[in-house]
Every structure is written in structure tokens, then in C-alpha cells.
Amino acid sequence: MGRGKIEIKRIENSTNRQVTYSKRRNGIMKKAKEITVLCDAEVSLVVFSSTGKMSEYCSPSTTHLKGEDITSLHHKELMPIEEALQNGLASYIVYNAYKKVVPKEIVRANAANKQTTHAHYRHENYVERLLEEENKRLSYILHQQQLEMDGNVREMENGSAYNHDKGREYPSSHIPFGFRLQPMQPNLHDDK
Amino acid sequence: MGRGKIEIKRIENSTNRQVTYSKRRNGIMKKAKEITVLCDAEVSLVVFSSTGKMSEYCSPSTTHLKGEDITSLHHKELMPIEEALQNGLASYIVYNAYKKVVPKEIVRANAANKQTTHAHYRHENYVERLLEEENKRLSYILHQQQLEMDGNVREMENGSAYNHDKGREYPSSHIPFGFRLQPMQPNLHDDK
DNA sequence: TTCACTATATATAAACC
DNA sequence: TGGTTTATATATAGTGA
């Protein structure tokens, strides 16, 4: 599309690459805006230059959410989000967040020549993991407390109030039903 | 770019709009791939037609994550993600997920003619809300347990084992330091 | 929807500032 | 990097199948 034809392969000259990037980024952004307007489409476009600079375009929303909080949506409308979050879509999306926020220098310093397709599928569990960590933390506190509680009870029974024995397992049968831990999988549906 | 020049405004003829959408979607996808290759850039592109059909392009990852789990990243590299998650970027991203997963018919049925820019900023707290709910649930269990524990202790002290008084506040000074609840904000940094 | 066919509008490579 | 300019390569509107 210019004075000469170019092959679609990495532009080795770094200056040229940057210049071309700039021009084409503007071009693609313009196209994104145009298709949005012409075709009543919705577009989300995020581009990173090889130096790590981000540009993005997100088409204006055309939903009924104007002036409202998402929390005012009917449950029916939120379910797909929640299901998606539970089914790992969130992690794909967090991967995109990752691309947005991790300074490119760090990533590229490690990139060398490794080229990978679909590496992001590896990240599928990331959100779940983060939530799991938080759950673990709370669970730990709960567990400690259960030990403490059990300790107190036994101490009371034994008449010795301060001989805490935190090392042993707490038999699950001793935990009142209401206090049992939920499975580790975060349950985003509950307690609405 | 064709036989005639067109204004950049919504194409009213529905068939034309669809045809133009198809062509331009292909065009923009091609451009996305080209800039990826030519300029060593990273691109994430999601497009919805006005009928709700989604197309997307995501450039192959060129990071060191090949064959590795994101959990193997150094903490230094994960921090920006975690900060972003805490700072509400996640919710912007969940908004994009929302656009991906909510059946367009539902959204459009409600859309009427309301046009909104930046409605998605309203969604900023959605992820935080979900996490908060989960925390609340766990916190509730903790609280109940603290009551139970306190009850047991007092019951032991009083010699009456089954007179649970769950209604009153648990004085925070009674809670051993290690068992105090963390603030409601999910702490995604801890316990790595 | 998708395919093909052009004529034309646009994007952009190369060049220089 | 960001603006020019200009020649050329591409994208695509309009049309028909």
C-alpha cells in the first residue's frame, strides 16, 4: 500500500518497524471506529507496540446500562457472566489484563525467540488460583480458630486453660455443620 | 474505498450493513494479523456484529510463558497484575467479558435508542463485589465460629454448655490477634 | 450469508523534515 | 518518535449471482 510492496514478515529495521507500527495502529483504530459506526458493531481493540506502549479502542456501549450500576441488572442477565467467570473465561480475560499491565520490558527481556501460540490457555486457572489463595488464607484462619476453639474446650475439660496444642488435626466430626468449610472453588453465585 | 464514497454513519439498509460488516470485519482482522507480524506487536481484537455474532483475534503470545504456568512467574512480574486487579482494571475486563457472554438479544431488546459512552466505568466494582460476597460468606462463618468459641469458653466458665448467645457483638478485644478478620477488600497479594 | 468482479477510495511505504 | 508529500498497494462499495 505504498511506494513499494512489502512482505508480511517482521520488519527488521527497528526504526522502520516503529514508524510502520504507528501508521498501521492509527489505521486499524480508524477502521475499528468506522465499523462501529457503519455497521452498528461493537469493538474492543487493544494493541501493544514492541516497545510496550498500549493503545486501545472500545466502542461506546449501546446497552440499557446507562446511568445504572451493573448490580441493578436482573439476575437472568448476570448469570452468563457468573457462569463464564466460573468456567474459566475470566482467566482468559485476565490474560488480556496481563498483557495490558505487565511492563513489556520485563516480558520481552525474557522472550528471546520463543514463539508460542495459545500459551494463554495455560492461564485459565489464574483467577481461580487468586481466589483460592484468598480462600486458603481465610480457611487457615478458620482452621486455626477451630483448633483454638477445640483447644479451649479441651482445656476447659482438662482444667488447663493455656496449653494450646495446635499441631494435631481437628477431627471434622467435631466441627458444627454450619462452620464446615465450603469447597475451595470460589462460589460466585452464593449469597446474592 | 469502493465504487463510491460513503459517509461514516450507520448504514440503514440492513442487508448492506451486514455485507459491509462482513467485509470490514475480515479487513480489520487481516490488519490486526499484519501489524502483529510486521511490527512485532500484540493485538487483542473482539468484534460483535449487530446481530450479536462475535469474532476475535488475539495475537500469539511471545512471552517466556511457553510451557509454563503463570504461577511460575516471579513475584515482581505478577505484581502489576495483582495491583490492576485490586485497582479495578479487572472490572473493566469483566465488562468486556460481559459483552462477550451476555446474549445480544437481551441487551439489544433493552437498548432502544439509548446511546451511552463509557457506561462500563459503572461496572468497576463488579469483581470486587463478587469477591466481597465470598469474603462475606467466609467472614460470616468465622464470626459464627467466634461466637461459638466465645460461647463455649463462657459456657465452660459458667458450667452451662448449651446456652448459646449468638445475638450479641463479639468484643474485638477478645479475638486473638491471629484470628482477626482482614478488611473486606480482597487481598490478592498475601500468602504467596 | 458468501463469491466474484471492478472502479474507486483509502491506507501506507518511502522519503524527507 | 510525529508531520509532510506522493506513488502505489490494498480495501472495499456497488453490483450481480
From TrEMBL, chains A, B:
<keyword id="KW-0238">DNA-binding</keyword>
<dbReference type="InterPro" id="IPR036879">
    <property type="entry name" value="TF_MADSbox_sf"/>
</dbReference>
<feature type="domain" description="MADS-box">
    <location>
        <begin position="1"/>
        <end position="61"/>
    </location>
</feature>
<dbReference type="InterPro" id="IPR050142">
    <property type="entry name" value="MADS-box/MEF2_TF"/>
</dbReference>
<dbReference type="Pfam" id="PF00319">
    <property type="entry name" value="SRF-TF"/>
</dbReference>
<keyword id="KW-0804">Transcription</keyword>
<dbReference type="GO" id="GO:0046983">
    <property type="term" value="F:protein dimerization activity"/>
</dbReference>
<dbReference type="GO" id="GO:0000977">
    <property type="term" value="F:RNA polymerase II transcription regulatory region sequence-specific DNA binding"/>
</dbReference>
<protein>
    <recommendedName>
        <fullName>MADS-box domain-containing protein</fullName>
    </recommendedName>
</protein>
<dbReference type="GO" id="GO:0005634">
    <property type="term" value="C:nucleus"/>
</dbReference>
<dbReference type="InterPro" id="IPR002100">
    <property type="entry name" value="TF_MADSbox"/>
</dbReference>
<keyword id="KW-0805">Transcription regulation</keyword>
<dbReference type="InterPro" id="IPR033896">
    <property type="entry name" value="MEF2-like_N"/>
</dbReference>
<keyword id="KW-0539">Nucleus</keyword>
<dbReference type="GO" id="GO:0045944">
    <property type="term" value="P:positive regulation of transcription by RNA polymerase II"/>
</dbReference>
